[in-house]
Amino acid sequence: MGAEQGSYIRVQFGAKQRRQVKGDAMSNLPIPLAAAEFTPDWVTAALQVDGKLKDEQVTSVETSPLGEGAGFLGSLARLKLTYNKPSQTAPETLVAKFPALTEINRDLAVQYKVYEREARFFNEIRPSITSMPTPETFYIDIEKKTGYGVILLEDLEGKLVVGDQLAGATPKEAEQAIAQIADLHATWWGRTDEDIISWVPAFDGPVWAMTAQTLPSLWPTYQEISSHLLLPKMDQVIEQTWEALPWLGQQLSQGPMTLVHGDYRMDNMFLTEREGDPIMVIDWQLMSRGRGPYDVAYFMSQSIDVEQRRETERALIKQYHNGLVAGGVKHYSFDDCFEDYRLASLWCVMYPIAMGGGMAHNERALQIAAELSKRSFNTILDLDAVSVLPN
Question: Cα separation of 381 and 372, whole Å?
């Protein structure tokens, strides 16, 4: 299930950011901005960079969109490949991740350096992670001038089943997701100053600081087109949260910090049919350094039905805290963990507002935006999370 990470050295940051592999092989391919740009010649050249193809040639590429409504900061397409001759190493299909099709989403992704973050995760951090299975990578490239990026990934169709954020996690799926994120957080707990991840943005750094200027601009649009989704007094809570975003970022960046996935939701998870098997996690574009319960709050306020979350919330946070302790975390009480969870739930209100305020561009995305509003708002009100803000 894991990637063949030994063939990757790291992303190089020169005139053109690109991926360097064994030897001196370098890619010099344009970054595709549409599925049609994954031509046979382009895919052949990409797969030849690290030897996935030898003298074989891709003769045709059949593309189909994936994850409608899920890839808000990027586009996904399945590539069905035909070759000029049989090959034991060449993939029959691939999943391509490339820049978002809509300008507002693409510009936001570049602002937050999401394409660069994910590329560097696979090249630099992934080899050190044993607790979180990820797909194999076949090609990675980043262009410094534009900030655009492309990744060719293992196609998991027929192997695993993609999660459904709209339907939400089942209780057992939630338990497995919480167990794995606790393991990841325990691994990196208190180690975020190490060179391997010190470059990852923290919540109080310049990348996330743009949130305080960018996302509140979507609030008027949300009020105009999605006001029917607001619960009583929720508009006041949201406006208080916007004003406190810099403070929230500082709190989420106080030690002890760890590596957080940043987009830990069901649409980014692939499941097996066997209960208890590891969940394969994709989409590390929002990876950050911060307080671990951020991922827990994001998952529980965005990927679990309201009533189920109410019934299982405390038990799942207790399970998460127990996982940290089992992983060697010390001097971090359950009460501290729960308070960090409450605080992080406020930060996470940005996602339904961003989606409902203009980033949702198809029917499923609109449905998700509505469901996230319901889940997130109820979480914040149930927890009286706004009370954590300074007066």
Answer: 14
User: For residue 95, which of 283, 363, 263, 355 has the smallest C-alpha distance?
Assistant: 283
Highest mean pLDDT among 2-16, 208-222, 366-380: 366-380
- Please report the domains of the chain, with CATH numbers, ordered by start residue: 5-154 (no CATH), 161-388 (3.90.1200.10)
What is the Cα–Cα distance from 143 to 19, expressed in whole angstroms?
10
Coil vs helix vs strand at 179: helix
**Is pLDDT of 69 > 50?**
no
Q: pLDDT at position 3, please?
A: 33
In the chain, the percentage of residues whose pLDDT exceeds 70 is 91
Q: Do 164 and 111 form a contact (C-beta atoms < 8 A)?
A: no
Locate tokens 């808000």: which residue? Answer: 72
**Residue 265 DSSP symbol:** S
The first and second tokens of residue 103, run together, are 């300008």
Cα atoms in the 13 Å half-sphere on the side-chain side of 306: 14
Residue-wise pLDDT for 118-141, tens only, equals 999 999 999 888 878 999 999 999
Between β-strands 288-290 and 18-21, what pairing exists: parallel, antiparallel or unpaired? unpaired
